[in-house]
Amino acid sequence: MTGAVLAAGLEGNVTAIGYGLAAIGPGIGIGIIFGQGVNAIARQPELTGVIRTNMMLGFVLTEALALIGLVAPFIFKSI
């Protein structure tokens, strides 16, 4: 088995492992965002709307990193 054939066979597995590693960071980040958001709402219930808005903004920005991690291997694969 040549190196090129072996590399072609492993390419899909490496992409899956790469995305799995790329999803760890955003997953931890989202957990921290919502955990701290719940603590903030428990401490200051009168600011629930503001805190919830900031939590959702943080969630969206953090989730964007996971989506970039999902799309990036396919973009770089075609180059």
UniProtKB/TrEMBL annotation:
<dbReference type="GO" id="GO:0045259">
    <property type="term" value="C:proton-transporting ATP synthase complex"/>
</dbReference>
<keyword id="KW-0375">Hydrogen ion transport</keyword>
<keyword id="KW-1003">Cell membrane</keyword>
<keyword id="KW-1133">Transmembrane helix</keyword>
<protein>
    <recommendedName>
        <fullName>ATP synthase subunit c</fullName>
    </recommendedName>
</protein>
<keyword id="KW-0472">Membrane</keyword>
<comment type="similarity">
    <text>Belongs to the ATPase C chain family.</text>
</comment>
<dbReference type="InterPro" id="IPR005953">
    <property type="entry name" value="ATP_synth_csu_bac/chlpt"/>
</dbReference>
<feature type="domain" description="V-ATPase proteolipid subunit C-like">
    <location>
        <begin position="16"/>
        <end position="75"/>
    </location>
</feature>
<feature type="transmembrane region" description="Helical">
    <location>
        <begin position="56"/>
        <end position="76"/>
    </location>
</feature>
<dbReference type="GO" id="GO:0005886">
    <property type="term" value="C:plasma membrane"/>
</dbReference>
<keyword id="KW-0406">Ion transport</keyword>
<keyword id="KW-0813">Transport</keyword>
<dbReference type="InterPro" id="IPR000454">
    <property type="entry name" value="ATP_synth_F0_csu"/>
</dbReference>
<dbReference type="InterPro" id="IPR020537">
    <property type="entry name" value="ATP_synth_F0_csu_DDCD_BS"/>
</dbReference>
<dbReference type="InterPro" id="IPR002379">
    <property type="entry name" value="ATPase_proteolipid_c-like_dom"/>
</dbReference>
<dbReference type="GO" id="GO:0033177">
    <property type="term" value="C:proton-transporting two-sector ATPase complex, proton-transporting domain"/>
</dbReference>
<dbReference type="GO" id="GO:0046933">
    <property type="term" value="F:proton-transporting ATP synthase activity, rotational mechanism"/>
</dbReference>
<feature type="site" description="Reversibly protonated during proton transport">
    <location>
        <position position="63"/>
    </location>
</feature>
<dbReference type="Pfam" id="PF00137">
    <property type="entry name" value="ATP-synt_C"/>
</dbReference>
<keyword id="KW-0138">CF(0)</keyword>
<dbReference type="InterPro" id="IPR035921">
    <property type="entry name" value="F/V-ATP_Csub_sf"/>
</dbReference>
<dbReference type="GO" id="GO:0008289">
    <property type="term" value="F:lipid binding"/>
</dbReference>
<keyword id="KW-0066">ATP synthesis</keyword>
<comment type="function">
    <text>Key component of the F(0) channel; it plays a direct role in translocation across the membrane. A homomeric c-ring of between 10-14 subunits forms the central stalk rotor element with the F(1) delta and epsilon subunits.</text>
</comment>
<dbReference type="InterPro" id="IPR038662">
    <property type="entry name" value="ATP_synth_F0_csu_sf"/>
</dbReference>
<keyword id="KW-0812">Transmembrane</keyword>
<feature type="transmembrane region" description="Helical">
    <location>
        <begin position="16"/>
        <end position="35"/>
    </location>
</feature>
<keyword id="KW-0446">Lipid-binding</keyword>
<comment type="function">
    <text>F(1)F(0) ATP synthase produces ATP from ADP in the presence of a proton or sodium gradient. F-type ATPases consist of two structural domains, F(1) containing the extramembraneous catalytic core and F(0) containing the membrane proton channel, linked together by a central stalk and a peripheral stalk. During catalysis, ATP synthesis in the catalytic domain of F(1) is coupled via a rotary mechanism of the central stalk subunits to proton translocation.</text>
</comment>
